[in-house]
Amino acid sequence: MIGYVTVGTKDLEKAAAFFDALLALKGGSRLMQTDRVIAWRGKNPQDCGFGIALPQDGNPASVGNGVMVAIEAASPQEVDAIYKKALELGGTDEGAPGERMPGFYAGYFRDLDGNKFNAFHMNMGG
Fold it and tell me: In this structure, what are the phi and psi dihedrals at residue 52, rounded to the nearest 5 degrees?
């Protein structure tokens, strides 16, 4: 349904290193790169893509209030690994991994620019 998601960054090089390491945990690799934008995609060409960009209008990147990007994980253990890696890479905690409701396990963090992410595993018994 969603083709890709892009978040703004103030430092393309630092953000790229953060997401190269973080998305590698999910098999992600760079799909394209320009002097202003870098995009990743998973192993499957139908996977939703993810990108970082220096804003086109030249104004500083800012965080959207209420905006969050969710990274699907295959298990609660993978949620833990993604969350831990994000913090190791300099991300900040927004909610340690745990069950938020029956069948929904998630950990929340912010990237180096303050954009909000979560890693989640959903097992609703279906």
Answer: -120, 150
